[in-house]
Every structure is written in structure tokens, then in C-alpha cells.
Fold:
Amino acid sequence: MTPAVVLFSGGVDSSTCLAIARQEGFAPHALAVRYGQRHAHELGAAERVAAAMGVPLKVIGLDLRAIGGSALTAELPVPKDAPIGGSIPVTYVPARNTVLLGLALGYAETLGAQDLYIGVNAIDYSGYPDCRPAFVQAFEALANVATAAAIEGRARYRVHAPLLTLSKAEIIRRGAQLGVPYALTHSCYDPDSFGRACGRCDSCRLRRQGFAEAGVPDPTPYA
Structure:
């Protein structure tokens, strides 16, 4: 089967994206990044989901805390019960998806893969600029001028964002049809020490609303 690299956090969106890549005929290679995020629960979820789905997982480390500027990489409080949408929230990590897709591109080039999957979504999201169609298109153009494989004619890179125009409920319904083990996933920005979701950050609220609107039981353990 043709390999593809899937950026993977162990959350609802990336897990659904992983299942879609496989459904579309690729042999997915999941790539998770330990980038200095405020907790390790999502990486634990990535390991659990990848194992359950029988997908190889590579974990790469880098430290975006050196840059800071986000409640996910610096000592800033995670907003709770705040309006979703409008201004870009403090949970935005500067240039994160650009950096992570760059790592995925490098990994793809070494694997001989030409397809990258990212679970960004421009409908039910918090307003992050690197979750929009313009970003996906721009990175795909970059990939095809930034790599030896592309310049030498050995690869034509494609960035797939299959969730881009889906609501969270539509994403969950699609994943449920594909057998995604959502009980193993993690979404919360600010879980307690046991890994239980806070239920009040943007990510928790979008997740909870998505399960409710999809008519799928929410398996999330809330604090």
C-alpha cells in the first residue's frame, strides 16, 4: 500500500483523519510531536489509539516552550467558559501547524510518501489561522519547492485536510462509522492529574457539543 504521513495528537480530529487516510487506501504512518505542551495525556492517547488501530507511530520531540506565547506552552491560564470564535484565543500556539507539517514533510520524504494528512477544521474551531484552507494550500505549494524529492521529480506532495469543512458532529459521525476508538482519545487543554477532561475549555466544549449533536455517546471522563 502507498504510505502517507498523518499528523497525530490522539484527539478526535486526528484520530478520525487517521481512519480516513486508511479508508482512502493509504498505509498511514502516524506522527506525534512532543512540543512542550502543558501535559502528556494527549501523547498517551496517541499511543493508545495508534496501537488500537494497528498503525505505526513515531514521536518526535522539540520544545516550543522556548518561543512561548501560548497557554499550551507557557505559564498562562487556559480560558474556561469563554466565547468561542471571534478573536484568536491564547491557546493558539505560534506557527505550530507550520512547524509540525514541516516535520511531517521531512518524515514523508524519508519514507517515500507523497501524501500528508492533517486534521485541521475551519468550521467548529477556535479561530486558529493555521486551520484554514489558505494555510493548507500554501503549505502544499511550499512542500513542492522545498524538498529534494519534489525538485528532482520523484514526488508531488499533496496535503489532505479531509475534515476542513465538516462540523464536529459530522467528524464524529464519520469516525464512528470507521470504528475510531473515541474512548481512547484525549482533547482537553487543561486536564486534572488523572487525565480527566475539565469540560470547560474550548476543546472540551466543542468535543462535548459534537458528540451530542452527532447522537453518539460521549465516552470522555470529565473531572
Notes: The helical segments are 12-23, 41-53, 96-111, 133-146, 148-151, 168-177, 202-214. The CA atoms of residues 118 and 168 lie 15 Å apart. The mean pLDDT is 94. Residues 2-214 form a domain with the Rossmann fold fold (CATH 3.40.50.620).
